[in-house]
Amino acid sequence: MLKTVNLQKKYTTDEVETTALVNVNLNVRQGEFVAIMGPSGCGKSTLLNIIGLLDNPSSGEFYFLDKEISKFSERQRANLRKEHLGFVFQSFNLIDELTVYENVELPLIYLKVGNAERKQRVEQVLEQMQIAHRRNHFPQQLSGGQQQRVAIARAVVSKPKLLLADEPTGNLDSAHGQEVMQLLSSLNEQGTTIVMVTHSPTDADYAHRIVNLFDGQIISENVKELAIL
Amino acid sequence: MFKNYLLVAMRTLKRNLGYTSLNVVGLALGITCSLLLYLVIRHELSYDTFHSKADRTYRINVDKISAHGPESNAGTPYPMLAVLKASLPELTPATHLYNEEGGTFTVLSLNDQEAPRKFREEKNVLFVEPAFFDLFDFPTNGINGKQALKDLNTVLLTQTIADKYFPGENPVGRVLRMNNLVNLKVTGVIPDAPENTDLPYQMLIDYESSKKINTFANDSWNSTYSNQQIYFALSPGANLKQAEDRLNEVASKYRPRSPGEQERYTFQPLTQVHFDERYGNFKSRTISKTTLWAMGLIGMFLVLVASINFVNLATAQALRRAKEVGMRKVLGANKQQLMTQFLLETGMITLTALSLSVVLTELLLPSLSKLLELQLAFSILRDPQLLLFLAVLLVAVTFFAGFYPALVISGFQPISALKSKTATARAAGLSLRRTLVVLQFTVCQVLIICTIIVHNQMEYFRSASLGFDKEAIVNIPLPSGKAKDLMALRPQLEAHPAIKATSFAIAPPSANIDMNTSFRYDEFSVERNFSVNMKMADEQYLQTFNIPLLAGRMYEKSDTMREFLVNETFLRQVGETNPQAALGKELVINGNQNQGKIVGVVKDFHLTSLRDKIQPVVMSTFTDIYLSLNVKLEQKNAKAALAHLQNVYQTAYPDDVFHYEFFDDSISRFYEGEQRQAYLFKVFSVIAILIGCLGLYGLVSFMVAQRTKEVGVRKVLGASSASIVGLFSVDFVKLVLIAFVIAGPISYYFMDKWLQDFTYRINIGYWVFLAAGALTLLIALTTVSVQALRAAFSNPVRALKTE
């Protein structure tokens, strides 16, 4: 599904050059659930952003669906994003001005999905996330757990091949956190590839493989379960 | 997609109601002003464009260069038209127009039982030839004008006059007596003249009848009268320049030029008559293209100032939208889609402001029409041109105000946007905001400086000494050629205790009547190549108007020209340095017709408005052409005195209508155009400042909100409230100062040019600039302080807790 070869990322400001990622070689296969762990500032989110096509690497190669895309333009990346990727953030990032239904509908609008099909798919995913009864509420009117369920609904409504989650339970209490992880796990079981950044060993337990990052380098990988590979 | 954009736009605008209202109100004010100015400009540009031959219709003017500068006049010699028709067939149709500025009209009754009704009109009685109807396309309601005015002594009444003179009656076939001289038969009723013509008329009378009314009419090529003009159409394919040369060539046979005399007949396009003050028009109202440009610029600037508010507020609060932008990008939205979304939002704000402007314009238009004495039309649905203007305005403002913020916001990097780390975008926006605020302050200061200067020039007009008294003097127009009738009753006239002095004359010292003649002075047998202005007045003129004599004495009472007075300018131009030296010298004027000795020299006084230089003047007596009685009154008994004057007047002229005007009123009318400009400047400066303040208020409130934490930290560290206010103010003080440096030279340049139009004008003092700078600073600081004080008095703990 995706592969990085000697991926590097440097941030340069006027005076300081900071290296966020050093020679990262990561391979994620179709159907895998990978957790990326490590201390704060180790480059987890940077890696996720590059995988999520929100950022370009400074050097190295990045293959997504067998295409080398590290030099893609913003427009090309935007197209890949809307067709193949779904995102879940720690802070939900729902659009406050839109209702639950409208938030979930948004990726389909950008994909130019027809009206009737859009309606049907949004309803289906809202049911699946058990949030349909809140479809006309605005994000501020929901609890954190509910908001994250909406965010996941929005991330999967376009049926992405790869779902990226950045600390999806970071802002939730443990009960709601567990609920969200179970949702992700069941999505993975249905075939969605998931790459998740997390601090929480409990959350990482849901993954097949844990990649440990330290100072921008992969220092170890723990493969939990080989059966599905 | 579009629906989604609209939805988000509406909800966002509703949620940030304060921000939305600031933008809408500011834009609505700006757009209203530009809309009003557009209506004025469009109206002014429409004068006489509705005639089908407008593009090839011309007026014949006279341009002269004499010793006291260029002279321009639209009056043509009376015999010219006949010559033109005979030798220049390509100038067809051609017509004389004679404009009589009012008169007395008596409706003759059908039977002897009924008393005749009398009316007085003050303006625009137009005498036309049949060709008038070939040349111009005034509405006639199906009446054949050529037929209706083909006979001598016929008149077409406009609807308004018909209703006034013949209420509920059919005027056709009835008889009007004009100035007790001519009986005119009404041959039809036509619609009122359109507002946008410089050939206004209350009635149209056959041209031949004017010869009995116009006392100046004669067959000489040497005299012209500005109310007697020629208009013609140039045949298609004919060459204008050649025709003009040919006319001058033919005319020179009839009017040989004296040596050194430079005079040329020129053709002025009909569509330019409205814009050239030098020649004037029958409407007595011109407006220069420069003034129209200035109005257009002011309109644009007001919209610009309001759009700047929009840009400033939108970029300042772009951070609030960062998360949404980031998320949309993550979901695959591209930059174009986001720009469309934000432009749409701007479009909605602009549309709301535009709708509000339409309502405001509807409300304000009557006052503006009254102020400018124009009938401005505003019927939005039946006016495709206006709709187009509004559409262009909508698109232009949307793009101007919305493009940059949309570009900034849509350019956010998704990751930084999601983390609200848009520091770079903010910094870039900040310097742009500063530039725009400087631009706003510059516009405001330029307008303030212009307002002060225009106001001062108006004050100068009001208070400058004109060289004569103008207070408590009334001018009473007399029927032409009949001054003697009232002069005979002079003892009776002056019997009232409130009447201090009376004088019969052709006109008061400053008036729109000009009589010019060539002259010979002393031993010079050759006529000088400058003409003198003739002031015909009786022996009590100087006393009535309190005009001082510098040398000699006032001339003796007489009915004809026997002795002369001259003014200081006259002396200078003939090279005399000592007033005493001129006394006793011989003066010959009007060809060789009149001759006499100079008996006195008067101090210079102004003959027209302060726009013009004082001309050389020769004064003498000539009872037959006196057209005005001037009476100095005791102010507190003016009412009784006027009643007395009316009594005596009616004894002398039982068939005429008594009418008077206070002299200072007629003088202030010289400056009506400038007074209106001054008023418009004031209104627009206030609005510009108001819009600027709205934007500033919004901007500062935003800055305060952004720097809440900084303010908290500073307060914890012991900063005083004053220093917090200073923190926010110092930036704006700098911007006002930069704007001041830009605004000063710009406004000086334009106002200096504007003042050049007036021969007598104020000096632009440096204090004007300082005052404008100080005023802007004060307004800016007050606006900033209101918000800054709120930050200064806030509880620092609360500010820091939000972290």
Structure characteristics:
heterodimer, A: 229 residues, Rossmann fold, six-stranded mixed sheet, 7 helices, 34% helix, B: 26 helices, elongated
Description of the molecule:
The complex is a heterodimer of chains A (229) and B (803). With 229 residues, chain A is an alpha/beta fold. Chain A has one domain (2-223): P-loop containing nucleotide triphosphate hydrolases (Rossmann fold), CATH 3.40.50.300. Chain A is built from seven helices and ten strands. Chain A has a six-stranded mixed β-sheet with strand order 6-7-8-3-9-10, with helices on both faces. In chain A, helix 6 (174-189) links the parallel strand 7 (162-166) and strand 8. The longest helix of chain A is centred in the last third of the chain and has 16 residues, at 174-189. Chain A is globular and about 50 Å long. Chain A starts with a strand and ends in a 6-residue tail after the last strand. Chain B has 803 residues and is an alpha+beta fold. Chain B has three domains: 2-43 and 289-460 and 672-801, no CATH class; 54-272, no CATH class; 480-655, no CATH class. Chain B contains 26 helices and 24 strands. In chain B, helix 9 (289-316) runs parallel beside helix 22 (672-706), helix 11 runs antiparallel to helix 12 and helix 24 (721-755) packs antiparallel against helix 25. Chain B is elongated. The model of chain B has no long low-confidence stretch (mean pLDDT 86). The A-B interface holds A 49, 52, 54-55, 74-75, 78-79, 81-83, 87, 89, 91, 93-98, 102, 105-107, 109-112, 154 and B 1, 4, 7-8, 11-12, 15, 323-324, 326-335, 337, 414-415, 418. Chain B: Keywords: Cell membrane, Membrane, Transmembrane, Transmembrane helix. Chain B: It is found in: Cell membrane.
